[in-house]
Amino acid sequence: WSADEVTVIFVLGGPGAGKGTQCAKLVSDYGFKHLSAGDLLREEQDRPGSEFGEMIKTYIKEGTIVPMEVTIKLLENAMKDAREKDKKSLFLIDGFPRKLDQAHAFEKSVVPSKFTLFFDCPEDVMQERLLNRGKTSGRADDNLESIKKRFRTFVETSMPVVDEFESQGRVVKVSATRGPDEVYEDVKTNFKERGL
Ligand code: UP5
Ligand code: MG
C-alpha cells in the first residue's frame, strides 16, 4: 500500500499507559479501524489449531516480543480484511512496532506511518493501573512479576523505536497521567494540528 491509500498511525506507550482506552475514543470520533497487536496475538493464541499458540503464550507471560513475522502477518491480514469488508483506510496500530527492526520492516513492506502517537506515563502510575485491571482482566501478564518484565522490555527495546521516530520529527507526545478524558482532549488538539 501507499500512504495515499492507507493512513496508519502507530500508538505507542508503556504497558498500561492507556493506548487501548484512547484508541477506543478515537474510533468513535474519527472512524479509525483500531488494531491492537497484543489483542491480535491473544486471539491467535486462543485460535484452535494455531501453530503459534504456545509460543505466543510464553512470550506474553515473559513480557518479551513475539517474532515480528507473526505479528506483521496478523496485522496485515486484519488490515486487508478491514479494507475489503468495511472499506477502512484509517488505521490505529496499537502496541506495535515494539522493536526497531519491526518498525523498519513494517514501514518498508506494508506502509509508512503518518506519525506515532506516544503516551508518556511514569512506571508507578502504569503499575497501579495494571494491578488494578489485573483483578478482573484475566490477562496472564497483569501480575507484578510479568509487569516488571514488560516494563524492562519497554525501556530496553521499545523506547528506541519512539526515540528514532522522535529524531525524525514523527512523534506526537501526550502526557498520559491525568484521567482518560483529559488525556483525550490533548490527543484531539494534537490531531487537529496534524490535519486530522
Ligand atoms: N486507564 C487507562 N487510561 C487511564 C487514565 N488516563 N487514567 C486512569 N486509568 C486509566 O489501560 C490500562 C488500564 O488503565 C485499564 O484498566 C484502563 O481502564 C486504565 P489500557 O488502555 O488497557 O492501556 P494499554 O496501554 O493498552 O495497556 P496494555 O496492558 O494493553 O499494554 P501493553 O503494551 O503491555 O499490552 P499489549 O496488549 O500491547 O501487549 C501485550 C504483550 O503482547 C506484550 O508484552 C508482548 O509480549 C506481546 N506483543 C508482542 O510481542 N508484539 C507486539 O507487537 C505487541 C504485543
Ligand atoms: Mg492495550
Automatic annotation (TrEMBL):
The keyword Cytoplasm applies. Binds 1 Mg(2+) ion per monomer. Its cofactor is Mg(2+). It holds the Pfam family ADK. A ribonucleoside 5'-phosphate binds at R42, T64, I65, V66, G95, F96, P97, R98, Q102, R139, R150. ATP binds at G16, A17, G18, K19, G20, T21, R133, R178. It is found in: Cytoplasm; Nucleus. Its main location: cytoplasm. Its EC number is 2.7.4.14. One of its GO terms (cellular component) is cytoplasm. Transmembrane segments: none annotated. One of its GO terms (biological process) is nucleoside monophosphate metabolic process. It catalyses: UMP + ATP = UDP + ADP. GO terms for molecular function: ATP binding; nucleobase-containing compound kinase activity; phosphotransferase activity, phosphate group as acceptor. Residues 36-66 are annotated as: NMPbind. Residues 132-142 are annotated as: LID. Catalyzes the phosphorylation of pyrimidine nucleoside monophosphates at the expense of ATP. Plays an important role in de novo pyrimidine nucleotide biosynthesis. Has preference for UMP and dUMP as phosphate acceptors, but can also use CMP, dCMP and AMP. Monomer. NCBIfam families: UMP_CMP_kin_fam. This is Uridylate kinase.
